[in-house]
Fold each of these.
Amino acid sequence: MRKIIYSLTIIISISLHSQNSSIAFTLNEKDLLPESIAHDPNTGAFYVGSTRKGTITKVDEKGNQSVFIRSGEFGQWMIIGIKVDPQRNELWFCSSGGNNLEGYSLKEETEGRPAGIFKVNLKTGELIKKYTLEKPGGTHFFNDLVIDENGDVYASHMFAESSIYKIDRNNDTLEPFARGDLMLYPNGLAIADNRTNLFVAHSGGIAKVSLKTGAITALAIANDLRLTKIASADGLYFYENHLIAIQPDLSQVAKYKLSQYQDAIIEGEVLEINHSSMDHPTTGVLVDDSFYYIANAQFEKVGEDGSLEVSEVSAPVILKLDLK
């Protein structure tokens, strides 16, 4: 067990093991290795993306499960970040190449690693458009995405190029929006309620990107808080001037309070840690005052050659954490 030490400035509400989350549902297909989850407030349905199968599973408001997007249906690879745009009845998802995907065989050095962002009609499941980066020898990886009130999409791109890409609703093209050394391997994204700031989880901490100018600044983080390197966040969500962060290598979900001007993280509270269902938690989705998240992506069970023993994985679990 990793020893986690916090000073008195952090609100400690639990021990190093907790069961504050309840099981919302489990998925029938064991070997999905899910990374992402989205929610449609119009229907109550959840959508879960698979890195292993490259599928998206729909779980309706009654708990019925079905395959919403089939493996390879739109030429996609692993399903990474996904979001629902309820205003426009669209489902957006990031897809990237990688060994988690069953049967993946591209050699990065010669064939490159492809990535793309896909827009799907939420009612029909039909592809509206895809925006891909595919170049021999080029390494691309789209990780997470968010959608603002105008329908503009921002996506994190990591590995060979640490940057944020944007799909402007008006010109409908994929373009680089922000890049720089203040974002190292950008991951989870969250837009502030004031709709002026984009927060980016990365290996060096949390960055803030101006949605107006694309300027990047590093959030100051209180000395006693861990949000870098092994403690860096995957999923990131804005909630009442706090950032909800999933930190996979710490097996925890935490809430971090922002300063008045959103230029610093000044306080932290661990909401869940080492839950019995956790095996590499990844991302989640806010539904009113509850947080639903992937408890067990189980990525470590994939061999270097992409092999996976199905008998060694457990059914994917979605946990629910009440925030009030």
Amino acid sequence: MNPIRFTVPGAPVGKGRPKVSTRGGKFARMYTPEKTASYENLIALAAQAAMAGREPLTGPADVTIHMLLPIPTSWSKRKQAAALAGQVYPTKKPDGDNVLKAIFDGMNGVVWVDDVQACDFAVRKRYGATPGVMVVVQEIQGALFAA
């Protein structure tokens, strides 16, 4: 089966922690932060376009994610060039694992049935001229399921 490839445009966004609000001081309600919900919707739209009508994967999946973060404009031209050349690594937010969570949740019901199907995954975080997240998902063929 052909790999599913898509790009989520814009600066990567890490999955935010659930927020809690109360009504009348009695009832607590948890909700997903708006920024996270918007980003997950953007992921779902990009994934849906890449699926082009295919059914979601039902077996184990291998996922490769390349995060490209924007280069700070306050940096010198020399440091910006070094970042583009891969000589400077982004050791700032967002955390790679939080972006991974957002990407996985955004693909639920679109690329795969549920993100528990992700068995192999690799994440790279770098600086890029055009920020975004490139995603490649491949169903693992010939996998044996343990009973």
Amino acid sequence: MRSVRQCSRTACTEAAVATLTYVYADSTAVLGPLAQRAEPHSYDLCAVHAGRLTAPRGWEVVRLQPEFETPPPSKDDLSALAEAVREAGRGGRGVEAPVVEPRNVTETARRGHLRVLRAESD
């Protein structure tokens, strides 16, 4: 399944469609198509945030594409989604076998999800 990169803007959960890179030497912000990989000094933006991008005073914004649109789901995406739904319906994932403690182990205390166990010698 193809992983979808999210917009870098805080609290935005939309899929990224463009990559923003700053060229500090030229005081330029370059907004282009989504890069193949996420880079540490670039920012992935969704269509809304890419369209509203402005630069600080004295900076120039270079848009390598006039508009950025979220691509429709591909057949691979739909197949992966269908397979995930089938897997969830089978109950194969998320169902864990109960933990059975050995006979010589007893629980002596509990704090939240943590337990203190004591092994008694035979």
Amino acid sequence: MTISAESRSVQELLDKSAITEMVYTVAHAMDARDWDLFVTCYAPEAEGDYVNAKVAGREAIIAGTKAFLEPLDATQHLVGNLRVTVDGDIATTHATFIAQHVRAEATGSGRYILGGTYIDTLRRTDAGWKITRRQIRGIWSNGDSSVLTTPVS
């Protein structure tokens, strides 16, 4: 049976919607400190190439993210300009972000903002799209860097 161009186009739209939702879910899970939700976003073999570390494996990604975020009183990750490319069962995304970090016990203002990009690779699984690699690149920052207990560079 041959799949029509229209069916392929509909599937691509469905895939792009699910992938976009996944990228937003990661940001929501981090801000809500919902680690049960966060774990559902990553494949077991996922890798992270972050501003301040490289990690391998979903458990290492979770542990590193918790260690980075849990000392903070609040965060807000705003994600936008999301571009999604789907090639069969593999997809890539490129998104921009602005992340506000707040910690009252910091030595300065207690506020630190980081702007940058998320570049993700995802794989289609039986449980939906999962991130297999996330690269985070900071482009600019502003504020009190003492907010972060793990510095970024």
